[in-house]
Each structure stands twice: as structure tokens, then as C-alpha cells.
Design brief:
InterPro entries: BaxI_1-like. Keywords: Membrane, Transmembrane, Transmembrane helix. Pfam families: BaxI_1. The chain has helices at 7-10, 51-81, 86-109, 114-138, 142-163, 170-195, 207-236, 244-271. By secondary structure, it is mainly alpha-helical. The chain has one domain. It contains 8 helices and no strands. The chain starts with 6 loop residues before the first helix and ends with a helix.
């Protein structure tokens, strides 16, 4: 199975193909159209994962993030109006730290767990909601723009993958992973140097910050191609259905990063 830039997908197990290969996002096989060989009886815990499993689990995870995010954003807005920002900062940090811890546990322990994935989604909802609430007060309408922008990028890359407009090759995979590694190093350096008062200009809203956000958005977009390919391969190799939660978690990681970068970029552009 090809390596993905998303850490959640690097450890997907090769499933036993007791029920035969299952079709993925764009490679239908025999049996039920779009799903390959006949499925195992409903309720079989070891049946192979299908596209429907991935779609439903990802939809549930995204729904939790959106619901919690909207509630948190409304609360954050009320806190700003009341002149109290300390609680917002606390919620933002708590959501970020809880989300990070859960992400590390899920990734390194390879936990295909619905409760863990939904808990991660909820934590990210608090984190993103707190940030979005503040940004919405500063730049009315920016939240909807960021959501629509994220959805547009996701759908576009899904179409690109399904149509084969861009092939996921080993060379492309290495390029994206290398680019992602470079961006992470720059982010870490910017954070560390910022603690000592050194400004690299990556997050100050200037021209360099705009370019950096555009690069991050591009890398996140292309990461979706690797995510789709890994999910597709996992389905076709008969990975157990429970790992749909693991795939959903991986897609959520990319979606969260993409949304944050689009939100940042929109704020930079409105400052000009």
C-alpha cells in the first residue's frame, strides 16, 4: 500500500480478503455495482470496508465538528461582546491540546474507534469554533467563506481523483510528503523563534504570510489525493469495516488544517 502524507493512513492494516476485493472510489468490480464482490452478512464485524462505511463515518465526524464548532463560535461571539476574551483563549487552547493528544493516540496506536474519532472531532470543533467566533467578529462573513472554500477544495480534489486527472504515483507521493515535511519544519521554526521575538513573517499577514498560506492550502489539497488513494486501496484490499473510523479520522485531520489555512488567508486578504 502506498505511503500517505497523512499519518493516520500510514498504518492502515492490510485486511484479510476473506470476502474478496472490494471496489473503492473509482474502481468498480463485480457483484453489487460500485462495491465489488457480494458483501458479508449485515452485522459481521470482520466484513470488508466499503465506500458507504467511509462516507458515513466521515460524515458523522464532520457533523460533530460542525455542530460543536457552531455552538462554540456563537458562545465565543457572546464572550467578545461581553468584553471577556480569557474564556475564549482557554477554550481554544483546551480544544487544541485535547485534539492533539487524541490525534497522537489514534495515529500511533492505530485505533479504529468511533468514540475516539468523534471525541477528536468534538475537540477540533471547540478549537475551530473559538477561533472562528473571534474572526467572525473582526471580519463579518469570513466563517461562511472559509467553510465554502474548504468544501470547494475538497470536492474539487475528489473530482480530480475520481476522473484520474492527476495520477497518484510514487513520485507525486514523495513530493507531497517532502513538501509537507518542509512546511511543518517552517511552522515549528516560526513558533520557536517567535517565542524569542524573532518574526519570520510567515503569520503576520504580510506578502510572505499570504504566499505561505497559499502553499499550505496547495499541499493540503494535494494531500487529499493521497488520502483518497489510501482509502481506495484499503477498501480494495479488504480492510475490516471498523477501520472506516480510522479513514474518517485521517480525512478530518486534513480538513481541519485546510480550513485553518483558508481562514488565515481570508483574514490576511481583508487586512490589505
Amino acid at each position: 500500500m502506498r505511503t500517505s502524507s497523512n499519518p493516520a493512513f500510514r498504518n492502515l492494516p492490510r485486511g484479510a480478503t476473506a470476502y474478496g476485493p472490494y471496489a473503492g472510489f473509482n474502481q468498480p468490480q463485480g457483484g453489487v455495482p460500485g462495491y465489488g464482490a457480494p458483501q458479508a452478512p449485515a452485522g459481521a464485524g470482520d466484513r470488508p470496508m466499503t465506500v458507504d462505511d467511509v462516507v458515513m463515518k466521515t460524515g458523522a465526524s464532520l457533523g460533530v465538528t460542525l455542530l460543536v464548532g457552531v455552538i462554540t463560535a456563537i458562545w465565543a461571539r457572546s464572550q467578545v461582546l461581553a468584553g471577556s476574551t480569557g474564556a475564549i483563549t482557554g477554550a481554544m487552547i483546551a480544544g487544541m491540546l485535547v485534539g492533539l493528544v487524541l490525534a497522537l493516540i489514534i495515529s500511533f496506536k492505530q485505533m479504529a474507534s468511533g468514540p475516539m474519532t468523534l471525541a477528536y472531532s468534538a475537540a477540533e470543533g471547540v478549537f475551530l469554533g473559538a477561533i472562528t467566533g473571534v474572526f467572525e467578529m473582526l471580519y463579518p462573513g469570513i466563517a461562511l467563506q472559509a467553510v465554502l472554500g474548504t468544501a470547494a477544495v475538497f470536492v474539487t480534489m475528489l473530482v480530480v481523483y475520481k476522473t484520474g486527472a492527476v495520477k497518484v504515483t510514487p513520485k507525486l507521493t514523495k513530493w507531497i510528503i517532502g513538501a509537507l515535511g518542509g512546511v511543518l519544519v517552517l511552522m515549528l521554526a516560526n513558533l520557536v523563534l517567535g517565542l524569542f521575538g524573532v518574526n519570520m513573517g510567515l503569520r503576520d499577514g504580510g506578502a510572505l504570510a499570504i504566499i505561505f498560506s497559499l502553499v499550505c492550502i496547495g499541499i493540503a489539497a494535494f494531500s487529499f489525493l493521497l488520502d483518497f488513494d489510501m482509502a481506495d486501496r484499503a477498501i480494495r484490499e479488504g480492510v475490516p469495516a471498523k477501520f472506516a473510523w480510522y479513514v474518517a479520522f485521517g480525512l478530518m485531520v486534513t480538513l481541519v488544517w485546510l480550513y485553518l489555512e483558508i481562514l488565515r488567508l481570508l483574514s490576511y486578504l481583508q487586512n490589505d
